[in-house]
Give the backbone structure.
Amino acid sequence: MPNYVFILDTNKQPLNPIPPARARELLSKEKASVFRRYPFTIILKQAIDKPTIKPLTIKIDPGSLTSGIALLDNDEVIWVAELEHRGKQIKNDLESRRSIRRSRRSRKTRYRQPRFLNRKREKGWLAPSLLHRVQTIETWVKRLMRYAPVENCVMELVKFDTQQIQNPEISGTEYQQGELAGYEVREYLLEKWGRKCVYCDATEVPLQVEHIIPKSKNGSNRINNLTLACQPCNQKKSNQDIQDFLADKPSVLSGILKQAKQPLRDAAAVNSTRWKLYLCLQRILPITTGTGGQTKWNRSRLNLPKRHYIDAAAAGVVDTLVFLTHQPLKIKATGWGNRQMSGTNKYGFPIRHRSHQKMHKGFQTGDMVKAIVTKGKKIGTYTGRVLVRASGSFDISTASGRVAGVSYKYCSHIHKKDGYQYSHQLEA
């Protein structure tokens, strides 16, 4: 069941999305043409004076690495996507640049006097790797509003309740848990330990919360003493000390102890950006919020699997959900490249230079193209991202591999570079 298709009239007024079969009918009868490939949008060849518009709701599940997006028509989920961020890439690039600059300055080749006290961060400053998450989600909300009549938004404001994670014994008037008690901790443990048993690596089985140091030996309920185990391993360990239980598996033991000490990095990343994202979306749409524990409770109550787009659809107050699509659009943020005009070696010295010209023969690196080669050694049809050269001999990266030496004369645009990479995945 693929996503519904966005549709515009000839004046680019957004109408309600339609099923793929209806879109194919309009295209085959030449009543519409393709307006955009990703997300797939068609445009009618006539204007609709007084269209009947049903307002849609966009739901967002902001994540540290991947965010889920869902469009709902009341209780019907008609369009879903999973947006993969590149915060880790941004962080690595900035660290690489910093190390190269420090290396140059340490060689006493300064062209200016060092300055340290002339930098001031504005109020509400976020690291570039975190701000990227906010801006990317905001970009896609605005983009979907251009293609569909979206009138309100629901987002998961708090992914993890760190107060309850750090101190699960807190209760009473100090903290009212309600019927979502325990969902915050269990959801965080699933994310932290990769949704598998830490002792036998079993997946797709019921997992139980396991104390690394047993409570009978003065172990606490704090998050750094909790992990996940399947029922057989949990019963086999019983109240043994983990050092004794894994005495014959030193590598597994060291991995568990190391992972247990990891900070609440994902929780911190999501929590540090949640209000920035909320304020950005509030300027665009009326918005309501929910928590990560509430999302998991809705998903468990409706017997839904764990997926990012399903988490998005289950955010907030939900009575029931009807999924009319299970083929999310996979969106990966790749960026627009950088302004570096020369490549450097590991010491920071230039070893190659880049051309000022980005476009060659009407194409630029990153465009999605379709090449129909009719003669030569590479006869066939190739679809994928293109790597351009001034000579006009391009490389095309397809799903099956990279095809080199395809002439630009055989290429036609499918989707121009916009800083994202797209694919579809059919979910069971």
The mean pLDDT is 85. The longest strand covers residues 76-84. The first helix runs from residue 20 to 28. The chain has eleven helices and 21 strands.
